[in-house]
Batch of 2 targets.
Target 1
Amino acid sequence: MQLGDRIVTLMAALVLVLQIAMVAQRWISIHIRIFAAQSFFLAAIAATIAWFNHAPHIFVAAVLTIVVKVILVPVIFERLIERMKIHEEIEPLLNVPISLVISGGLTLVGYVIAESFYRPEEPGLGHNALAVAISLFLIGFFNMINRRKALTQVLALLSLENGLFLAAISLTYGMPLIVELGVFFDVLVAAMVLGILIYRIRETFASMDVSRLRKLRG
Amino acid sequence: MLLILILSVPVFAAGASFFARRRTTMEAANVIGFGALFLLAVALGARVLAEGTVSLANGFFYADALSALVILLAASVAVVCSCYAIGYLRDDQQSGGLGDRFSHSQQLAQLRMYYTLTPLLVFSMIFMAMANNLGVMWAAMEATTLTSIFLVTFYGKVTSLEAAWKYAILGGVGLSMALFGTVVAYYAGHSLPGSESLSGLNWSVLVQHAAQLDKTSMRLAFVLVLLGYGTKAGLAPMHTWKPDAYSEAPVPSTAILSTALLNCALYCLIRFYILTSRCLGPEYPGRLLLLFGLLSMGIAVPFVLVQKNFRRLLAYSTIDHSGIMVIALGLGGAMGSLGLMLHMTFHSIAKSLLFLSAGNVYQYFRTDRFAKINGSVMAAMPLTGVVLFMAMLAIIGMPPFGLFQSEFLILRAAFSGEHILTGVLFVLFSTGVFTGVLLLLVGMILGPAQDTPVAPRRPWRDGSLLALAVALVTVGFWIPAPLLALIRGAAQVVSGQ
């Protein structure tokens, strides 16, 4: 139990570091790889929890994470940027140092919220992981607002979803399997649908800067 | 068995349209599919009335009066819209509305997308209303967003891409909050016996043990779910996708989105409201719902008053009405719940009629600006003009139409429940929307006669409009006894009395 807790805490810390690295990252292709790495550590956390709690259905969730978020979604997006021939920089609205300070503040908020769920009498693996999960969720939100390029907004949305997954496994050791299946299916379809949409926006506007989408008002 | 049939009919309709090679086959697949679905939904309503609840596969699928009402409304709107869509899309194809540069086969592919995605959208809505598991309900709700994104981009214009992007991103963020809320609700029930199994998130199980759920977690869960599904329902301040998406999607899709899909989003809120109010008492969720409902009604007023575009006007009216329904839910009790269910029924009929008749105007005049139409609707298209006028009177809550009764009931619930401020603001905001919609639409329908040529007759579209108009007038005076029983049953599910 002690060992499992330590492994989970270490991995959760890595996941959080990668999330903050995403805030600071300027290149789209590296952004996609960071997302893949983050999802990989997430799957590792799920597998650790499954191993130490003897909960085989979390293994399924871990495998699905690897298949969908470490392999399929990054491959779809890599192909997309290859087809659209974009290697340009991501332009955040706020500059990197300010964004990092805000992310740090959001992490603190995440820890404060997670405190209210902490039950010392119930031994569990999830205390630190839940705080990280809520921080991922909040930083993902911030990242969506802070980015102008369509693809990076989608990546922020997916990393926010990673936070949800971590919250689910640290709070309740995963949702029932059928729900996990539904969620993964939706994530995969959403990635494809949004990919097609980005491709069409890029074709029409010759840019995927969503701040140019401002014709509809009132 | 009945539940399986209901679920499989739209899937077959989607498959038939996907593999069809001719336009008429796709049209037939949709109309026949939705017609059959409507009959099955009526049968489901009858069975729910007779047996109370219907469930299948160990309670994985579960339908009570509330689900049956939402399914019935979705099926009715879908069948009318599928008839209307035949005329509407044929007209688009002939007049180059699908894009002039496209070849015949490209146009056919575009139509195939419409006729395949619409049954899939209806399928996800029905699946959602039948899912007992709150997580599965969430997944089906996400599926409704995914299936409707490409209906919003149907015309492929610059503005439709913008609308679809807003819809996808806001919908995605909203639903991720709803998923977080669902996870927290699952955690709230994790100390119950049997929560590890599949049924741990089943609504029918949770509602029986609502009093034992963890109170702190349920508080957080309800806020997250309200923000999440509230985004899908278009509650202010998360409503900004709504006018864009509604004015860019093809008219029959808009009619489905603004009635059936709105009902589905409210359905999810209602399920969580029932859990939360049984766990924490009705005050906590009620106050939050009243706040968001009043905010939505209030935000609609200025946008309605200065609106230049009639499809966006109707979208703001939908935001206003979703605010009204959320207020009814927040007031709760026997009267508020009955008002909510009646309002949901009447609004689905009136708003789909309003969007479809406004779609006729849009397609004939090729504009959705009031200034360019300038009162020539009645002269050019008398039938559409009369129906549009009637639907407008219904939607602003004029007697004898049903929305007057339901809004009156909600107002009575507000004043008798000592929510005086809510009642006063409700009247104030309703008056604002009333004035705006009345002035703008009357100016568009009735004006100085101009030399606009009279539109030719359109059997598919006019037929669907007349059918809906007859339904609207009928339910204003007389609701069939079984339907009323179903509405009362749904209200009982909400109020628990």
Target 2
Amino acid sequence: MHEHVVETRNLSKRYGDFVALDNLSIHVDRGQILGFIGPNGAGKTTTIKILVGLSRPTSGSAFIGGVNCSEKASQIKRLVGYMPDRFGSYDNMRVHEYLDFFGAIFGLKRSVRRKRIADVMELTDTTYMQDKFVESLSHGMQQRVGIARTLLHNPEVLILDEPANGLDPKARIDMRQLLLRLASEGKTLIVTSHILPELARICDTVAIVSGGKVRAFGPLDEVMRSLCPLRSYEVQLANPEQLDPAAAILTKRLQASEPITLSRAERVIRFPTVRSEDELAHLLQGLIAEDILVSQFREVASDLEDAFLSVSAGSPGHA
Amino acid sequence: MFISENPILRRELFSRLRSPKTFLAISSVAVVSSLLVLLRWPTDASIDLMSQGALQVFRPLAFALATGLMMLIPAFPATALVSERRRGTLALLLNSPTTPFQIYLGKFAGNVILAFIIFSVSLPALAACYAMGGISFVDHLGPLLLVLLGMAIQYTAVGLWISVIVNSADASLRWTYAAVLTLSFLSLGPTIFVGKLSGIQSLLAHWATAISPISALQSITGSQAQASEIGIATGWSEFLVASCVITLVLSMITLIKLDPRLVERARPTGKVIGRKATTTPFYGWFRRVSFLVDPQRAKGNIPWWLNPIMVKEFRTRKFGRLHWLIRLISICGVSSLMLTFVAATGTVSWGVDRIAPTMVLLQVALLLLLGPCLGANLIASEVESGGWQLLRASPVSPIRILTGKLMSTFWTLMLMLLATLPGYVVMGYIQPALSGQVGNVVVSLVIAIFMVTTISACVSGFCRTTAVATATSYAVLLALFAGTLLIWVARGKPFGPLLVERALQLNPAAAALAEMKTPGFEQYRLIPDCWYLCLGISFVCLAILSIRVWRMTRPD
């Protein structure tokens, strides 16, 4: 039987009458990056807290490396590197001292700790800031130090809550590369983020949660196909005066479920469709046959934001 | 813009009034002032024209109100500006059409009005004193209210000034309480020299005394005879003048500092010199020794035999860094030796009997100044910074967290006590008969340290912010140490000897003073009952704190 590195089985958590998690079941394999997505209050942080042993489920179970998260919390803490959304800085403490402190509370021996700190600082590119006070670092630098801290005890699984939050574009690219590098080294990552295009670039698997329930879970492509079955196409014309005749032709050939929208400034006509490639080829041929000068006919790829919106629009409590 | 329309004033005042802490402060003042009157209310329907009965209530009531004001009022302005700056809202205010003067005025007036509201609940008690007869509005009640108002504006100005120059709320609270204690008590120091000084020095000493509300309160409550015995010759009007001058000067400095360009300060990034990898072994060793007190020296890795939580606590607090600890300990050591030298050489006609209580009082003052701040930081600052979540996610046990944190405070305070031991040793050498008493004094002070540590840490465990934890710790410990001495001040009138002795048994500093036969404490036998009681309180706090830490580290 295939052993998942991280697995939750029918995980539920209730606070009185409020259901924070409702039968949540997900799993992640070694070296994979799971994008954990959901609106505020969806249950992401509750799930993470259960996984890192900071919270107990009302029912169901969670496992990391085969170890039950609620029954063997102390063992779990050594298997997981957890970076919460708040950095947790200390005044008057330098980066090296900060990492040394966390190495010490994870029980790393002094000689091991010294080498490990050097290694993680090199991996996260933080060596140059080792003598700076942690509270004086920029947000991006602190996020890097936060990841260095989670890596100190060489955990199998990294759980990062909003690692790209508040980062500038350059820092985001650096963060993305770092996460991909960690995954390539065999680490299993669970990453939450509100910046969905960022997640889409690094995740193998996504779980979209809303109202405590898993709305979609699986490989990114499958989730996209299941949540966004309508593909969006756009036709760009060379001559703006042909926009109305072209729209009339398309309206005649398309169905009511495939409404067209015009963008005169862009000289573009857009429409959603489930038609096959052959049918679309005929559609293009029809336009050309009517002497419409088509400069581009292309599919606009749906992204994770579309998938997220399609899920959250249907979830309870969504305005 | 009328002051009543000042948005800062309205926000400050209403947000403070909505707070449960303000309700608690108002209730405490009402209960204490009512109890004091109730204790001395005449049972027969007669008016005491000689004013003795009314004065016996009025005197402790006046001192209780002043102590309450010292404990409660500085906490609000001390966090007013620094908290806004930390949250980033001060920059928003300064970049709005509101002028710095309006911001300052709003904060200042908000705090003074709040002080007035809190202490207005004592007006019925003061009116009851008046009704008892022998107390006049012109000579007693009016001056007392003016002195309380003077204290409120002076401490508000001090708190706001410190709040604008420091970087954290707890540092602001620490320095504000230090300043208030200095203004109220240490300013009385020069009085002992007034009789011997002349000219400008005498004038300066006289006005230094006028800064303290103690001299003003003594003149209002009719204790001039006791006051003049120790050289105090200032009245309440001089205190009001001194208060107004201090308030004006500090307000102007604060307004100058309340500038958008000065508020946005660059954070120190830190640099280290002498990292071992970049130096030769001998040079590295040389720097390590010679830069023992260099704040920029690179720290080594935490050794296995030290609790990492304790090391972290030392490293993250300003006074915990070695260079600060050494300075602090040196000051304690030198001060105690100087005092002992004064006793040995007979300067100012003081003997061991006067030096020892002075040393005890100075040590307790330092303990009360630093202890609550260190202890209150332990849990609350960790929760506030988000570090607690990281500790919970690590495999470190609650016992290790607790011992590491408590030891970091206990050892700091113990080091200060140990630094003064040479002074006590010399004292024992001067008067060998005192050796046993000195031993008991040291034990009492160790117990005081344990008590301060556990109580403030316990308070810290139940607060979400460092500022609240620090202010609450100061209030609780000052109530315990200064409050019991206040009961002692009113011994016999209205408090009976048994009640005074019971109250003093809660105060290890009083036990130390009684052991040294300090004037006024000779008749009390507080040891060992005081030790057992204080240790009992400390262990109860420790037990509560242990349960709290255990609960806080458990999964939710």
